[in-house]
Amino acid sequence: MSWQAYVDDHLLCDIEGQHLSAAAIVGHDGSVWAQSENFPEGTKYMVIQGEPGVVIRGKKGTGGITIKKTGMSLIIGIYDEPMTPGQCNMVVERLGDYLIEQGF
Known about the structure:
By secondary structure, the chain is α+β, with helices and mostly antiparallel strands. It is built from two helices and six strands.
């Protein structure tokens, strides 16, 4: 499976009628492995919660961001209302946990 398929099929999937507005998978070196077409580069978010070395959650207006660190990558999910922060967390962290299990 290509990295783009992980973004398209796993991060941008439908969750209770909602989906992430943008998503990406990037390497620890900053290289983009895959991203949605509308991924907003350079947008700043206020960090609201984090677990050191594992996950960061941020907020901007009525939306937000979840970033999950794996062994080789960062899984990034961006949401806008009506998607909830919990739904975003679930999507991003589920894929991140799977990739960690697979050695990525």
